[in-house]
Design a protein that fits this description.
By secondary structure, the chain is an alpha/beta fold. The protein folds into 2 domains: about 10-60; about 65-170, Ribonuclease H-like superfamily/Ribonuclease H (Nucleotidyltransferase, domain 5, 2-Layer Sandwich), CATH 3.30.420. About 40% of the residues lie in helices and about 15% in strands. It contains 7 helices and 5 strands. The protein is globular and about 45 Å long. The two termini are about 25 Å apart.
Length: about 180
Amino acid sequence: MALPQHEFGLDVVALVGALRHRDHRSVPEIHAALRGRWVEIAERSVTNLLDRYDELLATSLSDTRRLRRVLTRQGRATLALDGMQPDVGHEVLWVVRGCLSGKVLLARSLLSGTAENLASLLVEVAAAIGVPVEGDQRRTDFDPAGEGGVERALPGVPHQLCQFHFLPHAGLGTNFPDYG
């Protein structure tokens, strides 16, 4: 998942933010770390990605007037939740986005992608946006910790698994969770 008009995915944006804020690395050090991971990037672009990371974290439900204005015109919301399962002790950027509006509704770094943590993000968004949530799509790699969180957070709301993560398992005989 990449931000509109950006060439780098959220995984790179999150890594840049973690290297800066968690590891206290400078822009040249972050640039070197990315190049060491075979990410072709100019040093100036690292600064731009740091700005995007900070903007995402600043995206807050405290500005509910802006969100409600956009979402009221739609009359409903379909949410997308995306992030990566963190390594133990490392924060991961989780993003809740409105699928119909394309707007980032909430971005937060979490140390854990447990069902409870993810559910709390969705509950916070649903309470703040002022329109009914009619569905959600979430990324999944079939991590048992996160499977029940969305269902508990938004009971009665249809859920869709991310096809990008779901389809590679389709021909492998993977036991998929029963979502009714």
